[in-house]
């Protein structure tokens, strides 16, 4: 063996193995088999003892969900690209390496956090992304260990340029309401929100977008917090006339539940031109735009009192 060949062989042995993760979902067994490769694992839980510090997948970096969200008065707001750039640099993220998003997996609701982070990463230029199906709950139930070792990533030099291919703007929503496009508006919230019986605390008033229909985010789950596979998602989308829609905008209160609908339709069912309206009803209602299913004054007063206590 020549010196050059020997050097090349040693370099390959020293380098981390290339990951073989195929998204958009990854099962615990498949992720465990790839630990030690060049996968970037993001744990989006809070950093305390009840979250990341209490135990995480070996090599995971803590990236709390709040880093991917807007302010309290408008949580669904997109984080500016320059702020994402700084965050991703500190997390050591690189767009040419696979990313796996992990979360607790305690309910169908917290999958929305993983889906929102996935959507943010995809819109930021990442192409190889997967969500750990079932989260840390599924991981531990499968018998895999957790680590409490701190991870200090080496900062990267990433620069984020936002791709709005999967983002619905206010103008997109208004065009759908006005009938200027054939886009379907889909409310991911339970029916009680859609019909104005409930509202988010940060919303100006109850109600939904005009011309919208609802398809509850929890419909994509059949085994606790584990989301259905691509084949089942395609069937469910077809049964509910969502797969062939000429454009679809998913919304909810703050772009959390809506991220699950976006993920299931876009990434699993393979529907085309599916967008997420990130600010959703909190942003829309506080801007004073037209709404449907808004209750009358007395009903609104009662709902405000009910939602306060």
Describe this structure in words.
It is built from eleven helices and eleven strands. By secondary structure, it is an alpha/beta fold. The protein has two domains: 150 residues, Rhodanese-like domain (Oxidized Rhodanese, domain 1, 3-Layer(aba) Sandwich); 144 residues, Oxidized Rhodanese, domain 1 (3-Layer(aba) Sandwich). The chain has a five-stranded parallel β-sheet. α8 packs across α9. The protein is globular. The N and C termini lie far apart (77 Å). The relative contact order is 0.14.
Spatial order of strands in the largest sheet: 1-5-4-2-3
CATH topology of the largest domain: Oxidized Rhodanese, domain 1
Percent in strands: 5-15%
* Number of distinct beta strands: 11
Specify the CATH class of the largest domain. Alpha Beta
Given the helix and strand composition, which structural class is it? alpha/beta
Rounded to the nearest angstrom, the radius of gyration is 21 Å
- List the total number of helices: 11
Main sheet summary: 5 strands, parallel
Helix content: 25-40%
Per CATH, the superfamily of the largest domain is Rhodanese-like domain
Overall structural domain count: 2
Domain Rhodanese: 35-148, 179-293
Protein name: Thiosulfate/3-mercaptopyruvate sulfurtransferase
Pfam family, one: Rhodanese
Signal peptide: 1-19
């Amino acid at each position: 063996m020549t010196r050059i060949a020997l050097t090349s062989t040693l370099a390959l042995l020293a380098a981390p193995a290339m990951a073989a993760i195929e998204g958009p979902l990854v099962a615990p067994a498949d992720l465990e088999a790839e630990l030690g490769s060049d996968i970037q694992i993001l744990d989006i839980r809070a950093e305390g003892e009840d979250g990341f510090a209490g135990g995480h997948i070996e090599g995971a970096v803590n990236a709390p969900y709040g880093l991917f969200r807007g302010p309290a008065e408008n949580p669904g707001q997109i984080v500016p690209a320059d702020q994402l750039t700084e965050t991703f640099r500190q997390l050591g993220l690189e767009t040419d390496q696979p990313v796996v998003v992990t979360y607790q997996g305690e309910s169908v609701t917290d999958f929305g956090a993983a889906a929102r982070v996935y959507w943010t990463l995809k819109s930021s230029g990442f192409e190889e992304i997967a969500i750990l199906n079932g989260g840390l709950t599924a991981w531990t139930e499968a018998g895999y260990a957790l680590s409490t070792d701190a991870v200090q990533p080496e900062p990267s030099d990433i620069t984020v340029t936002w791709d709005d291919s999967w983002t619905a703007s206010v103008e997109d929503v208004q065009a759908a309401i006005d009938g200027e496009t054939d886009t379907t508006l889909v409310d991911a919230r339970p029916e009680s929100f859609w019909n104005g019986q409930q509202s988010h605390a940060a919303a100006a008033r109850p109600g939904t977008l005009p011309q919208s229909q609802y398809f509850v985010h929890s419909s994509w789950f059949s085994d606790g917090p584990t989301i259905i596979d691509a084949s089942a998602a395609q069937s469910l989308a077809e049964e509910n006339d969502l797969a062939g829609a000429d454009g679809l905008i998913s919304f909810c209160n703050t772009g959390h539940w809506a991220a699950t609908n976006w993920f299931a339709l876009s990434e699993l069912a393979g529907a085309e031109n599916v967008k997420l309206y990130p600010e959703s009803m909190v942003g829309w209602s506080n801007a004073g735009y037209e709404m449907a299913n808004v209750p009358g004054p007395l009903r609104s007063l009662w709902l405000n009192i009910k939602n306060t206590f």
